[in-house]
Specification:
By secondary structure, the chain is mainly alpha-helical. Helices cover 68% and strands 0% of the residues.
């Protein structure tokens, strides 16, 4: 169960990231959060969604997402 209620757009972006990066999807998101650079496969809207998640839930919140 997630402590944070994600929007449909956020869920869709997380799901796409999971498909792109497999078991290391959280590592890829955290790397993007640290550097501002995201690997291939994500468009500017999805990157903005991930950046918003960084600002609202941070690493601890991301760790709670299954």
């Amino acid at each position: 169960m997630n402590i944070y209620e994600l929007t449909t757009n956020q869920k869709n972006t997380i799901d796409k990231t999971k498909k792109l990066f497999g078991e290391y999807w959280k590592d890829e998101i955290k790397k993007g959060w640290r550097t501002g650079v995201y690997r291939w496969g994500l468009n500017s809207e999805e990157i903005a969604t991930l950046q918003h998640l960084r600002n609202t839930i941070g690493n601890k919140g991301l760790d709670l997402i299954k």
